[in-house]
Amino acid sequence: MLNLHKDHKNLVLIAFSVFVALSIGVAIIPAYQMQEYEPIPGQKDLTNSERKGLGIYVSENCVACHTQQVRNIEMDAVWGDRPSLPSDYFYSKQRMGIWRQSPSLLGSERTGPDLTDIGNRQPSDQWHLLHLYNPRLVVEASIMPRYSWLFRKTDTTAIQDGDITLPRGNTQMEGSEVMVAKEDALHLVAYLKSLKQFSFEDASPTEFIPALPKKEGSNATSTKSEQSMGANLYQNNCAACHQGNGRGVKGAFPPLNGSLIVNDENPEMLIKIILMGYDARQEYGMMPALADNLTDEEIKAIVDYERSSWGNSAPKVPKEIITRLRDSISNLP
After folding, report:
1. Which member of 101, 137, 190, 316 has the lowest number of beta carbons within 10 Å of its beta carbon?
2. pLDDT for 41
3. What band does 249 get if pLDDT is binned at 50, 70 and 90?
4. Spatial contact of 69 and 114, defined as CB atoms under 8 Å apart
5. Does 34 reside within a domain?
6. Can you say whether residue 257 is alpha, beta or left, with left for phi > 0 and alpha for psi between -120 and 50 degrees?
7. In this structure, are 149 and 247 located in the same domain?
8. Distance, CA of 48 to CA of 216 (rounded, Å)
9. Are both 106 and 153 inside the same structural domain?
10. Contact (Cβ atoms closer than 8 angstroms) between residue 70 and residue 197
């Protein structure tokens, strides 16, 4: 009978065999299977700037607080249109060298929001730069630390072509001083903007596992439900720039409380801005187009919420107007 207390040779042999078996089952076989995965059609490799940004993302330990994985449960539906797939990480998981493994980006703790689709949710360079310089400037309740070392202070007379500056009103600079984004900050923003969840053409909508069973016959169109839906959609799609109180960020993103466009009796301009985006005012950041991200019902909920919050008192918008404007925009050459 085998006695491992005295038979050291067999003890070492068994331990080594267990180690080899575990290595094959846990590491080698999965790594071999990963070679069979291909990128999603239309997915592009990271550019040189985006790959440098990935390195900065890892070196600054952003993975400690942010995930990049959408699970198939209802609470994750706000972070993407579908659960994440292995092919989503085809380019970011390529080995950096024969002796260097690719970084782990999935994350294990969601202290901050998931970043799987942040490139679609927030495509504004100005917002990302302000958020890196001081997160509280754009998200009042944020607990994210400042990354001010990614910026340098300089005089307006020393600004060179290609320098990206932050709005002076937000950085509290004195005299003629301004904050300029360093190359590391620009690379990091380029990487964050590249994080976009690709959708499959002609795919049916993904059903996320609901947190609670849906009750038959519930009045989902009640006023309370509509207000709650509008508030949640606004927080997930609009509050990062326009703020939860609708006051915006001075010198970066316009306020919605008291806005003539929001309170206009004719809501077509507001709806067009949401559908098509807006970048006609140099003093403010770019407003991304949300036509591909939101349904007519969701846009109606957001518009109604904005027109009835923070002292605004405009009438509700018929869904038919949104449908008509969406159709007219889709027919533009």
Report:
1. 101
2. 80
3. confident
4. yes
5. no
6. beta
7. no
8. 52
9. no
10. yes
